[in-house]
Specification:
GO molecular function, one term: cytokinin dehydrogenase activity
Bound molecules: flavin-adenine dinucleotide
Structural class: alpha+beta
Catalytic activity: N(6)-dimethylallyladenine + A + H2O = 3-methyl-2-butenal + adenine + AH2
Largest sheet: 8 strands, antiparallel
Number of helices: 16
Radius of gyration: 23 Å
Cofactor: FAD
Distance between the termini: 32 Å
Enzyme class: oxidoreductase
Keywords: FAD, Flavoprotein, Oxidoreductase
Helix content: 25-40%
Shape: globular
Number of strands: 18
């Protein structure tokens, strides 16, 4: 089917020809693709919103490609126009409009999601080729059920697309060992901002490969990724242990992530919670099973406004004897200085562990907080400054909680590839901090504004105090802030833009570059 943009005039009654001042002249003839172009209606409404729920824009049209050539067609049409932009939209789980294109074309990457799924084997090990629009959840299920294999590095929540997380980094409790998801792909197919379809890897078109990884969608649209696989374990022992003191929590967490593979857990994360019985922010958020109870009498008298929880996981096979698993777990846990009696654990299938956030998603959908705004803040903070950050942010600004998880756990810089576009704080150990705010349905608009203001206050405090930090999933509105964010990597980022998207067609919602006239 050849689709043209004219249907826009047919099904969109109102301000058709003037979305953000766009004219269709020249675009309508040139946007000649096999897939669909949808103008107006539910598709453009969805493409104009995201999980953050704080931005709403009107794209010109949504492109539903059948393959990379359609995506290249959309980019080439934009190149021929005066000011059209193109945003790939993965699952729209950005917070600040990063996957939006006001008055531009939004490419719905989920359409071509099932087009690729091929497992292969190379001297470097097993891999799977998947579409850029594939959901990690589906990649997991197919790899495990059809091949007994699984990717090595994950995000906590898997309703995200491969291209969407690779454009940022993709971080979870396995990243201390394998690096982020960007360190676990070996080849990509990319549609550049020049409209070229290019295969790239460390050896072939390597500048494009490393530009796109962590590139915030600025250099190309990932249509295929080759993801490294390993044998999937059958089961996971999932453990939570509680600390009253931040320095004891960080000492143990840093020790665990610095051990050799076989002498540590397979997953290490951590979070901060309120020292109180608040069901959303406090003690009840720690136990892993309804039969477990948090016993506050175990807490030392000296405990402060917040407490800390290390979250650990150990993989095993059903053929392993439980006593062997117990022994491995106890050997590791025996070295840790958590509060005795505040330890929780469950055993569950590996796939269920990786899909653990689905339960929270279901609950949030039932209570309506999946749909309300999510003014989230994600940062990387250096080990040098994480103590200061704890004293000011966790113990003061966020001491009553943020209505959702407050993650904090260490990562190792040596597991990240410096050639990608991601920027990190200095030093081998740095922390990811995530304030995952959920807003009750009854909350007033002003409470969302307060949360956004508090996020800004935290970022400004970091800048003022010279905290060594970088925003993760960054969002800035000014050129100066972006330059500060990239630091000495800014000129490389600009050079890459000049090379691969000189007209600044791609991912305009990141607000880094303006479309060249
Ligand atoms: P989108 O929001 O659709 O797009 C993000 C950016 O990437 C946009 O600029 C877009 O234009 C660009 N893009 C999208 N697809 C492509 C492509 N194929 N090629 C090139 N550019 C593309 N992150 C973590 O690292 N770890 C976590 O544990 C984690 N948990 C999360 C849990 C939830 C509930 C949510 C909402 C987010 C979480 N994130 C996490 C953040 C998530 O990784 C990012 O928001 C990611 O961008 C979302 O993926 P998406 O597919 O929805 O991308």
């Amino acid at each position: 089917m050849i689709a043209y943009i004219e249907p826009y005039f047919l099904d969109n009654d109102s301000d058709a020809a003037s979305v953000a001042g766009q004219s269709f002249d020249g675009v309508s003839e040139s946007l000649d693709i096999e897939g669909e172009i949808v103008c107006g209606g539910a598709a453009t409404d969805i493409a104009g919103k995201d999980f953050g729920g704080m931005n709403c824009v009107k794209p010109l049209a949504v492109v539903r490609p059948v393959g990379p050539e359609d995506i290249a067609g959309a980019v080439r049409a934009a190149l021929r126009s005066d000011k059209l932009t193109v945003a790939a939209r993965g699952n729209g789980h950005s917070i600040n409009g990063q996957a939006m294109a006001e008055g531009g074309l939004v490419v719905d990457m989920r359409c071509a999601a099932e087009n690729r799924f091929e497992v292969g084997f190379s001297p470097g090990g097993a891999f799977v080729d998947v579409s850029g629009g594939a959901l990690w959840e589906n990649v997991l299920k197919r790899c495990v059920s059809e091949y007994g294999l699984a990717p090595r590095s994950w995000t906590d929540y898997l309703g995200l697309t491969v291209g969407g997380t690779l454009s940022n980094a993709g971080v979870s409790g396995q990243a201390f060992r394998y690096g982020p998801q960007t360190s676990n792909v070996t080849e990509l197919d990319v549609v550049t901002g020049n409209g070229d379809v290019v295969t790239c890897s460390e050896m072939e078109n390597s500048e494009l490969f490393f530009s796109v990884l962590g590139g915030l969608g600025q250099f190309g649209i990932i249509t295929r990724a080759r993801v490294l696989l390993q044998p999937a374990p059958d089961m996971v022992r999932w453990i939570r242990i509680v600390y009253a003191e931040f320095d004891e929590f960080t000492r143990d967490a840093e020790w665990l992530v610095s051990q050799k593979d076989e002498s540590t857990f397979d997953y290490v994360e951590g979070f901060v919670f309120v020292n109180g019985d608040d069901p959303v922010n406090g003690w009840p958020t720690v136990p892993l099973h309804p039969d477990h109870a948090f016993d506050p009498t175990r807490l030392p008298q000296s405990s402060g406004s917040v407490l800390y929880c290390l979250e650990l996981a150990l993989h095993y096979r059903v053929s392993d004897s439980i006593s062997t698993v117990d022994k491995r777990g106890e050997k590791l846990i025996g070295r840790l200085r958590f509060i005795k009696g505040l330890r929780f654990e469950v055993d569950l299938p590996y796939v269920d562990f990786l899909l653990r956030v689905n339960q929270s998603e279901e609950m949030a959908k039932v209570n309506g907080t999946w749909e309300t705004p999510h003014p989230w803040l994600n940062l990387f903070v250096s080990k040098r400054d994480i103590g200061k950050f704890d004293r000011t942010v966790f113990k003061e600004l966020a001491k009553n909680g943020v209505g959702g998880p407050m993650l904090v756990y260490p990562l190792l810089r040596s597991r990240w590839d410096d050639r990608t576009s991601v920027v990190l704080p200095e030093g081998e150990i740095f922390y990811i901090v995530a304030l995952l705010r959920f807003v009750p349905t009854c909350a007033k608009a002003s409470s969302v504004e307060k949360m956004v203001a508090q996020n800004q206050e935290i970022v400004q405090w970091c800048v003022r105090k010279g905290i060594d930090f970088k925003l993760y999933l960054p969002h800035y509105n000014s050129r100066e802030d972006w330059i500060r964010h990239f630091g000495n990597r800014w000129s490389r980022f600009v050079d890459r833009k000049t090379m691969f998207d000189p007209m600044a067609i791609l991912s305009p919602g990141q607000k880094i570059f303006n479309r060249a006239p």
